[in-house]
Specification:
The protein has 149 residues and is mainly β. The protein is 0% helix and 39% strand.
Length: 149
Amino acid sequence: MADLTAAADLRVWGEAFTERYEVDSTGAQTIYRGTPIIHDMNLDNTGHVNPFVAAVVVADGDVSVGIAAENFSSAAAEVKFIECYVFPTILGFKSTIFTNADLGKLVFPADSGLLAVTVAAHPLIGTLWRVDDGYAWIRLTRPYIHTGG
């Protein structure tokens, strides 16, 4: 998996629901809009969130919370919050891998903003709701506690 290097091209269907989360401040962070956001319990079990990046393996107990709604950066030890899209927001991600035959399938991040239906040790994003105009529309999941890696 390659990490996002710029904000993802996202669209919102209907109303956007957002929530602010405190970002883990043990190190400097750069997060781009469209990055999945998780509580990585191996890094920080105090409730702070982290971006899902290539170096992260989602493990039992990690929690998917949403998708970064903004670009974000912070220095180590700097306390900052990030705005995230959360359930029941429907987000459109640029994608050509899905068709309407895939509607209802669970969706995970695959690589650098790309989506997939089967990716081990990656966080659940949501359910494929619609495919239209070069976008895969994903209904974001409620906070989801991962089991089985």
